[in-house]
Amino acid sequence: MRSPEPGTSPTVPACEAPPSGASHHHTTLTMTSSKRSPAVTQRFLVVFDFDETIINESSDDAVVRALPSQRLPDWLKNSYREGHYNEHMQRVMVYMAEQGVSEDSIRSAVEKIPPAPGLLNLLEFLQSHQQDFQVVVVSDANMYFIQTWLEHAGVHHLFQKIFTNPASFDAIGQLVLLPFHSHSCSSCPDNMCKQAILLEYVAGQQKERGGAPFHRVFYIGDGANDVCPSLALGPRDTAFPRRDFPMHRLLQAQAPKVQANVVPWVSGEDIVDVLKKVVEER
Fold this sequence. Notes:
With 282 residues, the chain is of the alpha/beta class. 33% of the residues lie in helices and 13% in strands. It has helices at residues 59-64, 74-77, 85-98, 103-111, 119-128, 143-153, 194-208, 227-230, 246-253, 268-280, and strands spanning 44-48, 133-142, 161-165, 167-169, 175-177, 216-221, 238-241, 261-262.
């Protein structure tokens, strides 16, 4: 995470205030810059969560229904430790393999998950405005679930990048999950801080774009782990929390820390309405 460049204002702190005497600050995601590249056409970045944002339920819950009993035993459910969900899901995948659940069964369970309301209309809008919007996923699900669903829905090509936990089947047919990264944020799960991912990506893109920043960043999510990246958004950016989900309630509770516009959504159409107006502001 970088220090502000000359002429830029720092964003709010990360998940929590830095220790007393700490000198580093984060840059705003939509920094002002005098440099512009004529080749840069995508003015806006759209960041999606996956579970209960692109799809209408947790992919982990959906996959459990591929078990013969369609549920986890209590001893396994009770083994979850706060902040170690990725580790817990690896134990679930081991158990599923032991119960004879095949890759085909897991793939089928993922493909059957319905999209969130209005989500496909939102993706259709983004497809028709690819010159304006760069689209990425930042999710604490896993690469196998996300790629499987996006490919089945015919929308994988819309996403420039997917940031999620690595996952692949091994020689004995078990889906092996790995943590995405390690980080120092005390508010996020041990395997993923979405703010760290977002700040690093935006900084890298600005460098690739010859110093030109995104004009605005739009973050679409639902869960508690979507709050941390939302706190890095600047006043021109927008956080879209799914109405009455944890992200929405937590952003309301932390309102003084939030610089971004906050627009709750029930359907992807709510987001389309906002993005249409943004595109028209030329």
